[in-house]
Amino acid sequence: VPTGVLQISDLLPTSMDRDNEGIHLSLVIPTYKERDNIQNVIRILSQLLDELIPKDYELIVVDDDSPDRTWEVAQFLTREYPQLRVMRRQKEKGLSSAVIRGWQVARGRVLGVIDGDLQHPPEVLTQLLSGIQQGADLAVASRHVEGGGVSSWSAVRRFLSRGAQVLGLILLPGVLGRVSDPMSGYFMVRRRAIAGAILNPVGYKILLEVIGRGQVNEITEVGYVFCERQEGESKVTWKQYIEYLHHLLRLRLSIGRSGRMNEQTGFPVGRFLRFGLVGLSGVFVDMAMLYLLSDPTTLALPLTRSKIIAGEIAILNNFFWNDAWTFADVSKKQQEWHQRLKRFLKFNLICLAGLILNVLVLNLVFNFIIPNRYIANLIAIAVATIWNFWVNLKLSWRV
Length: 399
Ligand code: GDD
Ligand code: MN
Hints:
Strand order of the largest sheet: 4-3-2-5-8-6-10
Bound molecules: guanosine-5'-diphosphate-alpha-D-mannose, manganese (II) ion
Number of helices: 14
Radius of gyration: 26 Å
Function: Transfers mannose from GDP-mannose to dolichol monophosphate to form dolichol phosphate mannose (Dol-P-Man) which is the mannosyl donor in pathways leading to N-glycosylation, glycosyl phosphatidylinositol membrane anchoring, and O-mannosylation of proteins.
Family: Belongs to the glycosyltransferase 2 family.
Keywords: Glycosyltransferase, Magnesium, Manganese, Membrane, Metal-binding, Transferase, Transmembrane, Transmembrane helix
Membrane topology: Multi-pass membrane protein
GO cellular component, one term: endomembrane system
């Protein structure tokens, strides 16, 4: 198994990709410190599935070597529940990779996931299963459709959850726009929809990977109420929010490069984001150079002269990163050194024009539209950035 990426078909006999072998459902239960929940979870899920699809399912607990020895309790339960399998991971950690590892050893034609803390009501499994039965490739339990909700979340957590969703919608409309609750960790997917897909195991939200990288056509959603946690505690900290941002950007950039998403948005979002990040790095270079050149404690050059040099060095910085990263995919011919030089001169001129535009827009907006200089400046910067991006895209890199 290659590091960094996980392929669902790894570790599986190829025959398992066929629909008429193995069992119907493999339900993965990722756990970390769920000692007080695991027995109830297994008991309730087994009871339910024994009625729905007797012997045609398996439960796979994937535990990350919990210090409370959840894996040991789960292992003990296998005596009583023959459909239960337990994986104790000692080298790897993380929710998404736990789910993927579970699916890798799964034998089901349908792959599912459910939390191991009873916050996902087990009854919903019935509807998820019938959604798949009726032809969906993916059945998602959702808090945001009829019958869905959260029991008693604080205003802060609701806000963070919705904010994360809106941000994701802006960055990845083609992925997050397809379901009402893209943060759900309770769903089932047909194996064949993700067999062979390379899923990135970073972060908490595996559903984004499934929709973004799988071949998912029909999706159905089932409402559910996210219950209160009875035992143990949530593992979500600020770190998961950072990881989520990282995940979104990563998915955005990689899908953007394959060109799939661009068909839907018409605008090269990934490239624009990279261009914007490079621009931001230029601000820091400009600031640092201005300090080095003009500060009384350093070189103490006159301000205007310092600014011109600082600005040019920032432009050089930006050009370098844009050429090496934002537009790394230009043709071989365009990589010759005199082509690069030509591009650099064009980039300089266009950025200079951008600066003039920046000043013009600032004055225009400030005097006639919004009499707040900082808001006006933000608008001016946005206009200049789009100008810089678009004109350089068309004239300098010509992609
Ligand atoms: N193996 C493993 N490794 N399991 C983990 C890890 C890990 O690093 N972190 C968390 N888990 C397990 C927990 O034990 C639990 O069974 C499940 O994953 C969910 O973790 P919680 O910490 O209880 O998450 P939550 O309830 O705050 O968050 C949930 O938010 C969604 C709603 O937006 C998500 O995890 C979703 O599943 C849920 O639908
Ligand atoms: Mn939980």
